Amino acid sequence: MGREVAESCFDGLIIEMVSAYGRRFYATKPDLASRRIEAIGFQVGHQLIERYTVERPRFSDHLEAIKFICKEFWSELFKKQIDNLKTNHRVGTFVLQDNKFRWFTRVLIDPSSEDNEASQGSSSEATSMLLHFPCGIIRGALSNVGISCAVSADASNLPSCESCILFFALKFSI
Amino acid sequence: MIACVAVVGHQNNPLYLQSFTGADDALKLHHIVHCSLDVIDERVNNPKRSVITLNESYLGLLYPTESYKVYGYLSNTKVKFLVVTTDLDVKDTDIRSFFRRFHAAYVDAVSNPFHVPGKKIISRIFAVRVSGIVKAFAPGTYG
């Protein structure tokens, strides 16, 4: 019953969506663009978690829900699980670490400008725009199971595609 | 015979209510569904008193009135599915498989990008699918 689409189409769609919102629709307001992209991710995550939690017993607490996100949800989306989960119970923060984020393995940051510092700045801007979508997905997924939190992501050493490590930080409002 | 099916969101907002009796008793069924919501809340918040295991989705018989029985099912996303039936002896397995198909139809309806979460489900395909599931259910109980 499910039809399949090549992964490269999906990669292209995400890159074009981010570029459309960032450079065409809200070119002068990057904050608004990032919020719209995150809202798109929110709706996607909201709907996806509905599909992936069918037939599953209900989560008894936050940790179980996060573990579900790290294992089953991540495997459905990215064909692998989260590599490392750290938590700080007192502050209510969880850090998810993905050592090889599938959507970024084909992202090429264009080192077009001559000035080294400027290209550094624009490359981190480009990666942060791309990160809003997966953050939104996580936030939407968690909100549908009743957990409200803020999700932020941090990508280190992005241009080297073989080892793009991504950290998603989830902050709960206790 | 199934009198009506209902889907209720996590804030107890009605997402879908369809009656199959043919008579004009939508209000009465609405009322029955509404009362059953209280039973669901009670079952979920006081797990020690009920027999159902803490985290199972299927909640079983909620509310037997003089002519109706109401069965409940709670999804992981706190969406409640209710079915009101006039049959006196309904097998548990039949109802469980009904809820499974109902849940699958709901997931497909909600995955529609034009569906606004929290608002009523207006998809005609969903209505057709649910009617199909209800029609497929009825003969099974006599088997």
Provide a descriptive summary of the structure in words.
Chain A is an alpha+beta fold and 174 residues long. Chain A is built from four helices and four strands; from the N terminus they run αααββαββ. In chain A, strand 3 and strand 4 form a beta hairpin. The radius of gyration of chain A is 17 Å and the shape is globular. The relative contact order of chain A is 0.18. Chain B has 143 residues and is of the alpha+beta class. Chain B has a single domain, classed as Beta-Lactamase (2-Layer Sandwich), CATH 3.30.450. In chain B, 39% of the residues lie in helices and 20% in strands. Chain B is built from three helices and five strands. In chain B, helix 2 (92-110) packs antiparallel against helix 3 (124-140). Chains A and B meet through helix 2 of A and helix 2 of B.
Classify the helix fraction of chain B into a percent range: 25-40%
Quaternary state reads heterodimer
Number of separate strands of chain A: 4
Distance between the termini of chain A: 41 Å
Number of alpha- plus pi-helical segments of chain B: 3
Q: How far apart are the termini of chain B?
A: 14 Å
Main pleated-sheet profile of chain B: 5 strands, antiparallel
The secondary structure category of chain B is alpha+beta
Order of helices and strands of chain B: EEHEEEHH
Rg over C-alpha atoms of chain B, rounded to the nearest angstrom: 14 Å
CATH topology of chain B: Beta-Lactamase
What's the Cα radius of gyration of chain A? 17 Å
Strand composition percent of chain A: 15-25%
Family (chain B): Belongs to the TRAPP small subunits family. Sedlin subfamily.
Organism (chain B): Zingiber officinale
InterPro entries (chain B): Sedlin, TRAPPC2L
Protein name (chain B): Trafficking protein particle complex subunit 2-like protein
